[in-house]
Write a structure and sequence with these properties.
Blueprint: H1 16-38, H2 45-58
Helix pairs in contact: 1-2
Length: 64
C-alpha cells in the first residue's frame, strides 16, 4: 500500500473499507494500462479506472 495514500486529496475522508476498495481499483486500473501498453494501445488513467470499476460486474457469476 502506498505510504502517502492517506495524504492525497479526498483519501483522508475514506473509511478503511472504502480505502481498500479504492486501492484494489487502482491496482486493477494500473494492470489494464500496462496490458494496453503492451498491445501498442494507449489507455488513459481515467478510462482505465472506469473499465476497472465495471469489470467485476461483467464477469459471469460462478457456481450457478
Amino acid at each position: 500500500m502506498d505510504h502517502y495514500a492517506g495524504w492525497r486529496r479526498g483519501c483522508r475522508n475514506l473509511t478503511d473499507v472504502q480505502r481498500e476498495l479504492a486501492d484494489r481499483l487502482t491496482v486493477r486500473a494500473e494492470m489494464l494500462r500496462a496490458e494496453a501498453g503492451r498491445d501498442g494501445e494507449a489507455l488513459s488513467i481515467r478510462d482505465a479506472i472506469a473499465l476497472a470499476a465495471v469489470q467485476p460486474g461483467l464477469a459471469a457469476p460462478t457456481g450457478i
